[in-house]
């Protein structure tokens, strides 16, 4: 393990999404895939440029995750929306560029050492939906892209 990198396999539930930091690339997460979509290649329609996901841990915290084109083939048939997985080893980057699907300050990317294992659907309960009051939505305004929550219509 390189200097400054932290291994953090904290047992069956893994690491908390809320605690993800750039030094934690070897962390194990136990997460549900609440949203999964492919970004198509603009020149070759059948190939995906990347697979994008929103992951949620047992506490309900969410983080964006990408699988780049070079890794899509390794995981396309393994990871499914609404599935629960143990995932380990990520590149951790600032979550500053669109699409910004979560307010988490970091996002994850798969790389050559990323490992994924499917878990039983009963590993933990989760809801794909996160209902919020208007004041909560206004409080996160600017933290996530408006097209993910819609734009307010004023008369």
From TrEMBL:
SUPFAM superfamilies: Nucleic acid-binding proteins. PANTHER family: OS03G0429900 PROTEIN (PTHR47165:SF4). This is Replication protein A 70 kDa DNA-binding subunit B/D first OB fold domain-containing protein. Gene3D superfamilies: Nucleic acid-binding proteins. Residues 17-117 form the Replication protein A 70 kDa DNA-binding subunit B/D first OB fold domain. CDD domains: RPA1_DBD_A_like. It comes from Stylosanthes scabra. It comes from the Eukaryota.
């Amino acid at each position: 393990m390189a200097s400054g990198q932290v291994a953090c396999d904290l047992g069956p539930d893994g690491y908390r999404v809320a605690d993800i930091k750039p030094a934690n690339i070897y962390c194990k997460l136990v997460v549900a895939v609440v949203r999964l979509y492919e970004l198509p290649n603009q020149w070759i329609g059948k190939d995906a440029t990347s697979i994008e996901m929103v992951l949620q841990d047992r506490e309900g915290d969410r983080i964006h995750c990408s699988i780049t084109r070079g890794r899509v083939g390794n995981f396309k048939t393994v990871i499914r929306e609404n599935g629960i997985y143990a995932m380990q080893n990520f590149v951790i980057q600032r979550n500053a560029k669109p699409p910004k699907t979560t307010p988490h300050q970091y996002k994850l990317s798969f790389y050559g050492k990323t490992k994924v294992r499917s878990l039983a659907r009963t590993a933990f309960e989760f809801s794909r939906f996160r209902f919020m009051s208007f004041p909560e939505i206004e409080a996160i305004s600017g933290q996530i892209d408006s097209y993910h929550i819609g734009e307010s219509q004023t008369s």
